[in-house]
């Protein structure tokens, strides 16, 4: 599997609906949240998003679709979302806020 380039390490890694008992947790990988960030938050098109992550356009689309499906399932069915794992490398971003090129799986702070 190709190591994906990520420029964002989410400060929060667990989302749970208020007032709903924790029954099921869906895992959203760090590369999935990066795909959502690039396309939906930054407004990049699929080509630019894929280039940013150093992956092909079809791979980006698969990651993005997987993330959107998990997010929809969590919102519609009241499930928790946990951000962890994936095959990624965190890069220092342009603004200077970065995580010093740490590699591998999600690390705990």
List the helices and strands and how they pair.
Elements: E1 4-6, E2 14-15, E3 25-28, H1 30-41, H2 46-53, H3 57-77, E4 80-83, E5 88-90
Parallel strand pairs: 1-5, 3-4
Antiparallel strand pairs: 2-4
3D structure, described in words:
This protein has 109 residues and is α/β, with parallel strands linked by helices. It has one domain (4-90): Arc Repressor Mutant, subunit A, CATH 1.10.10. Helix content is 38%, strand content 15%. It has helices at residues 30-41, 46-53, 57-77; strands at 4-6, 14-15, 25-28, 80-83, 88-90. A 3-stranded mixed β-sheet has the order 2-4-3. 25% of the residues are buried.
The first-level CATH class is given as: Mainly Alpha
- What is the tally of helical segments? 3
Q: Rg, please?
A: 14 Å
User: What is the SS-derived class?
Assistant: alpha/beta
Distance N terminus to C terminus? 26 Å
Which strand-content bin applies to the residues?
5-15%
Strand tally is 5
* Net shape: elongated
What would you say the CATH architecture is? Orthogonal Bundle
Q: Write down the overall mean pLDDT.
A: 82
Q: Mind describing the biggest β-sheet? A: 3 strands, mixed
CATH topology, anyone? Answer: Arc Repressor Mutant, subunit A
Poorly predicted regions: 94-109
Summarize the model shown.
By secondary structure, the chain is an alpha/beta fold. Helix content is 38%, strand content 15%.
Highlighted features:
elongated, 38% helix, Arc Repressor Mutant, subunit A, alpha/beta, three-stranded mixed β-sheet, 109 residues, two-stranded parallel sheet, disordered C terminus
């Amino acid at each position: 599997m190709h190591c994906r380039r990520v420029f964002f390490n989410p400060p929060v890694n667990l989302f749970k609906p208020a007032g709903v008992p924790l029954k099921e947790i869906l895992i959203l990988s760090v590369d999935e949240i990066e795909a959502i960030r690039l396309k939906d938050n930054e407004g990049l098109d699929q080509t630019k998003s894929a280039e940013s992550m150093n992956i092909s356009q079809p791979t980006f689309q698969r990651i993005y679709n997987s993330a959107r499906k998990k997010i929809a399932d969590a919102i519609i069915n009241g499930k928790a979302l946990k951000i962890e794992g994936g095959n990624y490398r965190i890069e220092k971003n342009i603004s200077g806020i970065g995580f010093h090129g740490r590699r591998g799986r999600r690390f705990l702070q």
